[in-house]
Amino acid sequence: MSQPVGRVPQRRNARSNRARILATARQELGRNPDTTLEELARASGVVRRTLFGHFPGRAALLEALAEEAAETLQAAAAGRGEGDGPG
Questions:
Q1: 20 to 30 Å CA-CA from 59: which of 9, 18, 33, 34?
Q2: What's residue 79's pLDDT?
Q3: Are 51 and 63 in contact (CB under 8 A)?
């Protein structure tokens, strides 16, 4: 038996919300490091409960941003050829 149709969009919506929260956090925290989680939720277009569902607190959000940055740097370093010069 197949899964109910409603489940797939919810998962996709959750991934979309998480990505939007992270993108907004990068932007807003870059402008104002003291931005509150409530302000980030509002700027992301989600309610606080949604933000806290993905990130239980400020530390978890900052950790996710750091992990995302580390993955981006690793991918950039892995794609760099030997003859490209200094990083």
A1: 9
A2: 85
A3: no
* Nearest in space to 59 (alpha carbons), one of 14, 24, 25: 25
Task: Tell me the per-residue pLDDT of 32-54, one tens digit each, with 9 for 90 and over.
Answer: 999 999 999 999 999 999 999 99
SS3 (DSSP) at 76: helix
Residue type, 80: R
Residue with tokens 């939720």: 41
**Best CA proximity match to 69, nearest among 37, 25, 13:** 25
Whether 58 shows a pLDDT value over 50: the answer reads yes
Is residue 38 helix, strand or coil?
A: helix
- The number of beta carbons lying within 10 Å of the beta carbon of residue 60 is 12
- Cα dihedral across residues 60, 61, 64, 66: positive or negative: negative
CB 68 within 8 A of CB 29: no
